[in-house]
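ok, trying the design again with the full structure, not the truncated one.
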């Protein structure tokens, strides 16, 4: 809780800031003196003033230049300090200056010119690219100036940036906005399109494979004791548990026998795999070789627990033994197929398997899903790495 002294200090500082701004407004020269004037966009274009000479400004300038038909016009750029006092420029700053020259956008000086420029020019938005952590006080003053002038401001987000995480602004309760960081960020239409493809693919597959699935169910029932389906708890997106369905390919007490076979595990890492697993039934061996035991998982796709394409859903006990970086594979919805299925499955080292799943997450697109589905069909028919 703030003390009286703290409140008093803040009030004095705020009054001091207001006084400085009032003094500046009194001395504003609308014509801008002999300095370079903003390059105003024609007609109804959206005039943007960029504040900051750095890589973020460069990215923005290049993106605006790439879409020449857009309604955005960058009218100029303000630097954090006068050019003559900056000393040696960084490579990014030099590239940004070269971009300004190429696009014929004027460098309008330092931050103290903001009042001059806003006073008599049609500026629709001020875009601040200064690093928030290094220029907090300056940005706070710029926001106050723009607020008093009624000019909208945009801030680049450079807080707590990570290598893979992407950030977006999302709405919240009571009109509160918050920054959202995600390594598997997808736009709303992409999520909708992926889900629509999952539903369409699952309905089509279940319709096409209905008779073969009935035949498989009869064969399982006739050749071994136990239920037709095997339901096992797996972890889905964000560690959410669900019941994954498979055709039963093992004897009923397979989980109890697994403890006796742990020493014969042929996979490194926390996953158990054996090429000649004695628990597998004769019919089950054929089903596994052709991946037919996975067909009931189209029902999981319909329910929304799984997707057609995504990392395979792990068992909770396996995840407990993951290295921390491997848990990121649970940041997306699990699927029937992914890079692992088309790359040799059980022939692949566990760590390489995990990296393949992260590769999918980092490079996801709808076209990638379509490509993996098409490549899965011949991979399944060959039966490479299946056991």
């Amino acid at each position: 809780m703030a003390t009286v002294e703290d409140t008093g200090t803040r009030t004095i500082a705020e009054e001091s800031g207001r006084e400085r701004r009032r003094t500046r407004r009194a001395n504003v020269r609308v014509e801008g003196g002999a300095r370079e004037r903003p390059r105003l966009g024609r007609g109804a274009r959206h005039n943007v003033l960029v504040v900051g000479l750095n890589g973020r400004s460069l990215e923005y300038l290049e993106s605006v230049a790439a879409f020449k038909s857009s309604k955005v016009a960058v009218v100029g750029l303000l630097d954090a300090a006068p050019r003559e006092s900056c000393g040696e420029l960084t490579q990014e700053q030099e590239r940004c200056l070269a971009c300004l020259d190429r696009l014929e956008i004027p460098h309008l000086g330092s931050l103290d010119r903001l009042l001059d420029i806003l006073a008599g020019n049609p500026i629709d938005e001020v875009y601040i690219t200064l690093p928030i952590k290094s220029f907090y006080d300056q940005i706070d003053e710029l926001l106050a100036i723009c607020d008093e002038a009624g000019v909208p401001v945009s801030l680049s987000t450079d807080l707590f940036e990570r290598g893979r995480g992407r950030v977006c602004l999302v709405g919240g309760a009571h009109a509160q906005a918050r920054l959202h960081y995600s390594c598997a960020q997808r736009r709303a239409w992409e999520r909708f399109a992926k889900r629509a493809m999952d539903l369409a693919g699952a309905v089509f597959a279940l319709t096409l494979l209905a008779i073969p699935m009935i035949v498989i169910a009869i064969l399982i029932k006739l050749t071994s004791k136990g239920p037709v389906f095997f339901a096992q708890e797996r972890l889905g997106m964000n560690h959410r548990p669900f019941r994954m369905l498979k055709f039963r390919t093992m004897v009923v007490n397979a989980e109890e026998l697994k403890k006796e076979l742990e020493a014969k595990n042929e996979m490194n890492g926390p996953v158990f795999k054996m090429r000649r697993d004695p628990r597998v039934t004769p019919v089950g061996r054929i089903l596994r070789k052709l991946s037919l035991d996975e067909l009931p998982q189209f029902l999981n796709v319909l329910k929304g627990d799984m997707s057609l394409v995504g990392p395979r859903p792990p068992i909770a006990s396996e995840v407990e033994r993951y290295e921390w970086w491997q848990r990121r594979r649970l940041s997306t919805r699990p699927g029937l197929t992914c890079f692992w299925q088309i790359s040799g499955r059980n022939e692949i080292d566990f760590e390489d398997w995990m990296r393949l799943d992260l590769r999918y997450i980092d490079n996801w697109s709808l076209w990638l899903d379509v490509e993996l589905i098409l490549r899965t069909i011949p991979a399944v028919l060959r039966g490479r790495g299946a056991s």
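Keeping the full-length input from now on. The chain has 14 helices and eleven strands.
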